Amino acid sequence: MTPVPALTSVPALTSVPALAPVLAGAAACLLAAVGLRPVRRTVPYLGGVTLAAATAGAAVAIPGLPDRRVGAVLLAAAAVALLGLIADVGRLPLATRLIVESVAAGGVVLCGVQVTLTGDWLDGPVSVMWIVAMTNAYGLLDRLGGALAAVAAVTGAFLAGTALVLGDPFLAVLAAALAGAFLGALPYGRARGRVRLGPSASLFAGFVLTCTAAALTAGRGTAVIAAGLLLPALAAVVGAGAYAARRPRRSGQARKAAPALCCVSAGTGTAGLAVALGWVPAGVAAAVTAATAAAFLSHACLRRGRFPVVHPFHARRHRRDGLPARLRRDEVTRGRPVGASVRASSGEASGEASGGGRQRGRVPPPRSAGNPPPPYVRRG
After folding, report:
1. According to the UniProt entry, which residue ranges have a biased composition of type Pro residues (predicted)?
2. Which of 20, 203, 242, 353 has its CA 20 to 30 A from that of 65?
3. Cα(242)–Cα(129) distance, rounded to whole angstroms?
4. What is the extent of the structural domain holding 204?
């Protein structure tokens, strides 16, 4: 008589944590879709606050009493979302923003969400710096049209699956709720090809996703920690590097970045699931991800012009004042001002053609007070 209740109770215990992330994601998606429509018409600045409320409501209501880590992450992320709202409405100094984000990250670290690389007191500052850096990377990701919502939805879904594989249903519910909320935000704000959710939504998503990844890797090996931190952050790093290297000023350029970053996020999420299941070594995944991020960032720095490289055979193509580089160098070595011979020869030729060698017309006014105007030339 005793084995029968045990066999019947095991599926019930195992099905509730598995269905809770799905229910949380569906509830958050519904809340975000219903709440964003009137909010974006009346007060567009409150779109990120609506997404944060939908995520928190679904993450708390579905599983019941949340975990200590989940509660700390939601409270700190709410403070960061409020900070983003202030930055969206008015101006906020960078130092104030970094201080508030560091305090919020420090509160989360004190509640047990931290990067345990060394097992010493250095883990706290490293965790705070990592959370703040990735949160601001997602803030830059919002400037690429549609990329934030897509990357947050895909990354949150894969983090929820990874949390279920690792046996942490509370973090799975949190990640699934975030994914559902940003999935419900995709149809809104597509005016002129852009989906701008604001700094509040971007900072909230970056903070929650980074803290979820750090909590999933806490207490594990060094290779697993490196893979678990780098894989979810690769899409944000690539997007932030692409925006910093070449800021898209047209909506078409911004739209092209969203599908690529979504594919990057899906690939890294699949790799994270494979690492959690033990199909792929964690050290290999971490090394490949770090090499990819380093190569892309170096390429972005070169495109930005921080390390300009000009081939000597291409030096003649760089022109200034209408003169080739070779002629400009010859005139400087002779002690003559740049372009003087060309201007003198062109002036003499025009004077001879006009007859008498005198300049006709009014002399243009000087461009600065330190450059006195030439004498007025009377008409011939």
Report:
1. 363-380
2. 203
3. 22
4. 25-304
pLDDT in tens, 313-360: 444 444 444 444 444 444 444 444 444 444 444 444 444 444 444 545
Residue 4 lies in a domain: no
Going by C-beta distance under 8 Å and a sequence separation of 6 or more, which residues neighbour residue 97? 83, 87
Distance CA 61, CA 63 (A): 6
Would 97 be classed as within a structural domain?
yes
Give the pLDDT confidence score for residue 377 in this predicted structure: 52
Does residue 71 carry a pLDDT above 50? yes
Confirm whether 331 is domain-assigned.
no
| Cα separation, 201 vs 293, whole angstroms | 24
Determine, yes or no, domain membership for 295: yes
Nearest to 217 by CA among 127, 110, 121, 106: 127
Tally of domains within the chain: 1
Residues in the chain: 380
Q: Are 165 and 277 in contact (CB under 8 A)?
A: yes
